[in-house]
């Protein structure tokens, strides 16, 4: 599909090809989402795909050809996909972040022990990606704002940073494994909740529901996932931060905004509310047994 030099295409032909690319990447995202949710391999063989990442809406609508690149699937080099490329659109960068986020899951599905070197390669790739982000995609940036003409771009920027955070958490879980489940859970609850809240502080509430719906899966409050032993430590006087519960409130309210438009948001919100109800019941039972 993308075996020709874009400069050789006439604008109308390029715009037609761009429409096909966008359709392809939507299918790819659905495949990736299904794989993540089911913890099963993707249907699309990444080693055999070569489709340029989508460019900006403005370039497409105006039929103005912009050179792009296909996704590099080498885990250690995926972050270089858009380096030096004319295409610096937020959605293209988001797709790369989405790919990086799924790599630890792919490795975990293999069922083989993960070496420190292997997990470090992924951690370094995610760090390089974050460092390589162009200035207009950083959070916050002078150009970051929400209005009718910019909300799509700004939503992709928020989604990029949520994916970076999720990718880092997945790599840490991959490296720690079951041996350090307790420490990993407590860290995930405290650090990830705080970092997600920091990102959401930049998110204009009226535009949350217009974001890509799969991003909502990364917003489910992490506290209810803690094991009983982890909750005991997390709830101790030394570890409990008064702000931690408010971080959970922020995530729940963000999910509620997503649920205004997306059924997926409604499902995630109901599940989160159920988890929290069970968690609160468990706390009351523990307090009763201890008194």
Automatic annotation (TrEMBL):
Task: Please provide the record's keywords in A-Z order.
Answer: Metal-binding, Nucleus, Transcription, Transcription regulation
Q: Does the keyword Nucleus apply?
A: yes
Compartment(s) of residence: Nucleus
Q: Which GO terms describe its molecular function?
A: DNA binding; DNA-binding transcription factor activity, RNA polymerase II-specific; zinc ion binding
Q: Name one GO cellular component term.
A: nucleus
InterPro entries this protein is in? TF_fung, XnlR_reg_dom
Q: What is its main location?
A: nucleus
What GO terms describe the biological role, i.e. biological process, of this protein? DNA-templated transcription
- Xylanolytic transcriptional activator regulatory domain: residues covered: 7-67
Name by which UniProt lists this protein? Xylanolytic transcriptional activator regulatory domain-containing protein
